[in-house]
Amino acid sequence: MFASPAYAQAAGGAGGGAIMQFLPLILIFAIMYFLLIRPQQKKVKEHQKMVSELRRGDQIVTQGGIIAKVYKVRDDNELDVEIADGVRVRIVRSTVSQVLNKTEPAAES
């Protein structure tokens, strides 16, 4: 009719075929690693260090926006914080988003 059959032509002489096809994917992954994954891992490490160094008397901000003072460090995962005079709440350490004021460690005698 109006359309003639099309025949595939053999690919001729593309140098480094397989490597050249995967090169854009490798470059995209490398760019994503350096722009997204690596900075996020660094941020997580800094947060874990900050949370592990919390001690009594530190003034903190939780992820909910509550400003509190660390009253007691219970264990590896929990803190008792004072959000008002005489009002103490137990929170999970990982919910601390920022440390406002650090206290100095007690002098050893």
Structure, explained:
The protein has one helix spanning 17-52; strands at residues 59-62, 67-73, 78-84, 87-92, 96-101. It is α+β, with helices and mostly antiparallel strands and 109 residues long. It has two domains: 17-53; 55-101, SH3 type barrels. The longest helix has 36 residues, at 17-52. It contains one helix and five strands. A five-stranded antiparallel beta sheet has the order 4-3-2-1-5. The protein is 33% helix and 28% strand.
Provide a compact summary of the structure:
This protein is an alpha+beta fold and about 110 residues long.
Number of domains: 2
Q: How much strand content do the residues show?
A: 25-35%
Structural class: alpha+beta
CATH class assignment of the largest domain: Mainly Beta
Q: Determine the number of helices (DSSP H or I, runs of at least 4 residues).
A: 1
* Global geometry: elongated
* Span of the ends, CA to CA: 102 Å
Helix content: 25-40%
Low-confidence regions: none
Strand numbers in spatial order across the main sheet = 4-3-2-1-5
Q: What's the CATH topology name of the largest domain?
A: SH3 type barrels
Mean pLDDT: 85
Q: Taking Cα atoms only, what radius of gyration do you get, to the nearest Å?
A: 28 Å
Protein name: Sec translocon accessory complex subunit YajC
Main location: membrane
Family: Belongs to the YajC family.
Subcellular location: Cell membrane
Short key terms for the protein model shown above:
single chain, 109 residues, alpha+beta, SH3 type barrels, 2 domains, 5-stranded antiparallel β-sheet, 1 helix, 33% helix, elongated
